[in-house]
């Protein structure tokens, strides 16, 4: 049987730069983990493509997926549903490939329960004022949504304890480098590879 891949979860408060860091990681040619495209009921933003950025669904379609247990996790975030299709994650892990999720904090906590052996990374803003600055300069949200997201962000930062690693997103390139280093280190952990080497010694 093939060794299962590693489930990598990147989470953190809205506006910290999860999407930006994730895109930067996947723009590097030597990235060998697979991005799991999420489903959402949020309307596409300008330039977003269905099946690339998200699978865009109606509320009814999304609720049907929940009913059919087709999501590994899901959350309602600032008025919209977001969720991870379970089939892709299971299939990819069973092929021995690593899967990368970029999701908000409520969803990450659900994944932790289902996959305690996953690798959970919390992306941290340099400061709260810088976080607000990023949400404002992105310019995709109204003032009401910004205030709501800041309130949620403070609660989210308090959930940092549930993660294995905390990465500061001061500069995108530095944050990417830290995440890649963490994944590399995780693959070298003795408890993860002990079984493989035991098998190797039995064969030889
Ligand atoms: N729980 C969960 N959160 C998700 C999923 N996909 C995206 N998100 C998170 O939903 C939040 C809102 O995403 P989005 O509307 O694209 O805005 P932005 O990431 O803040 O620009 C972000 O924190 C995403 O990381 C998912 O499948 N499950
Ligand atoms: N390291 C960084 N330094 C400065 N700005 C950043 C950095 N990372 C992300 N940003 C900016 O912050 C805003 C929010 O980033 P985004 O990736 O949409 O966050 P999230 O996916 O966590 O909600 C964007 O305008 C993005 O360009």
Automatic annotation (TrEMBL):
Q: Name one GO cellular component term.
A: cytosol
Keyword Cytoplasm in the entry? The reply is yes
Q: What is its EC number?
A: 2.7.4.8
Cited Pfam families: Guanylate_kin
- The residues that hold ATP are 12-19
Report the principal subcellular site: cytoplasm
User: Taking every annotated instance into account, which residue ranges of this chain make up the domain Guanylate kinase-like?
Assistant: 5-184
Name any one GO molecular function: GMP kinase activity
Q: Which PROSITE patterns match?
A: GUANYLATE_KINASE_1 (PS00856), GUANYLATE_KINASE_2 (PS50052)
Reactions accelerated catalytically: GMP + ATP = GDP + ADP
Q: Which domain of life is it from?
A: Bacteria
Respond yes or no to whether keyword Nucleotide-binding is given for this record.
yes
What are the entry keywords? ATP-binding, Cytoplasm, Kinase, Nucleotide-binding, Transferase
Q: What InterPro entries would the database entry show?
A: GK/Ca_channel_bsu (IPR008145), Guanylate_kin-like_dom (IPR008144), Guanylate_kinase (IPR017665), Guanylate_kinase_CS (IPR020590), P-loop_NTPase (IPR027417)
Q: Where in the cell is it found?
A: Cytoplasm
Broadest EC class?
transferase
Membership in a protein family: Belongs to the guanylate kinase family.
According to its UniProt entry, what is the function of this protein?
A: Essential for recycling GMP and indirectly, cGMP.
What is the protein name for this chain?
Guanylate kinase
Encoding gene, per UniProt annotation: gmk
């Amino acid at each position: 049987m093939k060794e299962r891949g590693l489930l990598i979860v990147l989470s953190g408060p809205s506006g910290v730069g999860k999407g930006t860091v994730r895109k930067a990681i996947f723009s590097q040619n030597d990235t060998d983990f697979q991005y799991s495209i999420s489903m959402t009921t949020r309307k596409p933003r300008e330039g977003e493509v269905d099946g690339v950025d998200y699978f865009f669904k109606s509320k009814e379609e999304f609720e049907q997926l929940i009913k059919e247990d087709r999501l590994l996790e899901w959350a309602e975030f600032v008025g919209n549903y977001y969720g991870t299709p379970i089939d892709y994650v299971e299939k990819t892990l069973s092929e021995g490939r690593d899967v990368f999720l970029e999701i908000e904090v409520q969803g990450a906590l659900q994944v932790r329960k289902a996959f305690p052996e996953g690798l959970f990374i919390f992306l941290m803003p340099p400061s709260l004022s810088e976080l607000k600055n990023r949400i404002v300069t992105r310019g995709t949200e109204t003032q009401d949504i910004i205030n709501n997201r800041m309130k949620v962000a403070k609660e989210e930062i308090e959930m940092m304890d549930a993660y294995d690693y905390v990465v500061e997103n001061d500069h995108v390139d530095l944050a990417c480098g830290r995440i890649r280093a963490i994944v590399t280190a995780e693959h070298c952990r003795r408890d993860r590879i002990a079984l493989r080497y035991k098998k190797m010694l039995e064969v030889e």
